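Example 3.2
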Amino acid sequence: MPATKTKSKAKPKAKPKAKAKAKTTTKSSVGMTMPQVKSKATGLGITPGKMNKYDLIHAIQESESCTPCYGTCGGHCDQTDCCFIADCVRV
């Protein structure tokens, strides 16, 4: 009898996963995350505690002598120098 060759089933090599790109944010393109808002508040002497994002941002706006208007613009805000505008117009 002739010897039969057995085919070995080699597992295909797994493709290496691509590394996730670091996200960069600017105040004009992406809203601030809650940790960023808390950090800003702390830097201004505000204790965030368990404040929600709206109340915390309003407190920050008041401490900066601005109108506490976050989330009230209905998508059209004229406060173009505000660091919360990207998030505010989407609320």
